[in-house]
């Protein structure tokens, strides 16, 4: 409830016009460039690399990647279908996931989540970029324009570089490197990082609500609901089964299932915007997925709690 009450507060602020579109962009930049890196670096600086369990990454993507491919087959091998398939697979692990997992499961849950976040965008956005470029090249080849192999390689490199040189994986890597040195953070540095990290959760969730206030849904309910159900319901089931097969139990298993049930991530809209494909559908799907998560996420939290007792 705290998570969705903060989103609801943002929704009211957006509807009332208390925060303009330009301010939302500036606040989003503040969150991504300052608050998130502070939280990620401080959290991961307290982790020892040799103690990390990498099985959650393998378990998550053992389910997510086949699910992405299956959705592409269902929507059709064309740019719109790939973008919608990405919407049914890509979780909002940063803006909603970090705040939710932190509130529900504390520091131990965050370590598992941040390990996943370190490669989440890198893997999914790179594969989606390559798939979309291949689909466009295939269409162009059919029209006699050539296979466009160089274009595909450029897209893959651009996605890879953008996912690595980014305010999310970089502070995670730097925090792990600092922790590997065994040095404690000086109090004069640790305290400001802690305060910045505390500011991230509420502000990020309020911004989600403000963005939803400006999201049109008319005429796009069917597509939006299909993507939302794929993301909020189907993916958590697949991740739960995969993580169980990989031998994960207790808190790591719970965090993976809940993370898979988090609504559609904002990066999907940025991806659609970059390629000018299905932007309205993705926006509507994000809104429906976030609203539906009030029920589905609560359900997954209750189910995982019951199964791990």
From TrEMBL:
Example of a GO biological process term: transmembrane transport
Membrane topology annotation: Multi-pass membrane protein
Keyword Nucleus: no
Keyword field: Cell membrane, Membrane, Transmembrane, Transmembrane helix, Transport
GO-annotated cellular components: membrane
Claim: Metal-binding is one of the keywords in the record: no
Major subcellular location class: membrane
UniProt subcellular location: Membrane
Residue intervals passing through the bilayer: 27-45, 57-76, 82-103, 110-132, 195-217, 229-247, 253-272, 284-303
InterPro entries, per database record: Mem_transp_PIN-like
Protein name per UniProt: 2a69: auxin efflux carrier
């Amino acid at each position: 409830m705290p998570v969705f009450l903060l989103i609801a507060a943002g929704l009211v602020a957006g509807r009332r016009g208390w925060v303009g579109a330009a301010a939302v962009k500036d606040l989003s930049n503040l969150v991504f460039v300052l608050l998130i890196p502070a939280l990620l670096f401080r959290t991961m600086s307290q982790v020892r690399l040799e103690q990390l369990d990498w099985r959650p990454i393998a378990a998550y993507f053992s389910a997510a990647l086949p699910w992405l491919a299956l959705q592409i087959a269902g929507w059709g091998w064309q740019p719109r279908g790939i973008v919608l398939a990405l919407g049914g697979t890509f979780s909002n692990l940063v803006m909603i996931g970090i705040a939710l997992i932190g509130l529900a499961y504390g520091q131990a849950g965050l370590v598992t989540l941040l390990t996943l976040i370190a490669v989440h965008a890198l893997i999914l956005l790179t594969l989606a970029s390559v798939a979309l470029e291949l689909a466009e090249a295939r269409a162009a080849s059919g029209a006699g324009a050539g296979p466009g192999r160089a274009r595909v390689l450029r897209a893959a490199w651009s996605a890879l570089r953008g996912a690595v040189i980014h305010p999310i994986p970089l502070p995670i890597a730097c925090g792990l490197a600092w922790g590997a040195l065994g040095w404690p953070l000086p109090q004069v540095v640790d305290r400001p990082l802690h305060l910045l990290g505390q500011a991230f959760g509420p502000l990020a969730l309020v911004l989600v609500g403000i963005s939803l206030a400006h999201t049109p849904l008319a005429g796009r309910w069917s597509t939006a609901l299909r993507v939302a159900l794929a993301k909020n319901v189907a993916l958590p089931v697949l991740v739960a089964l995969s993580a169980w097969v990989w031998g994960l139990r207790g808190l790591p298993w719970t965090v993976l299932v809940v993370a898979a049930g988090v609504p559609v991530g904002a990066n999907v809209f940025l991806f659609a915007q970059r390629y000018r494909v299905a932007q309205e559908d993705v926006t509507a799907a994000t809104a429906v997925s976030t609203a539906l998560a009030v029920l589905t996420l609560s359900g997954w939290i209750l189910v995982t709690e019951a199964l791990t007792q």
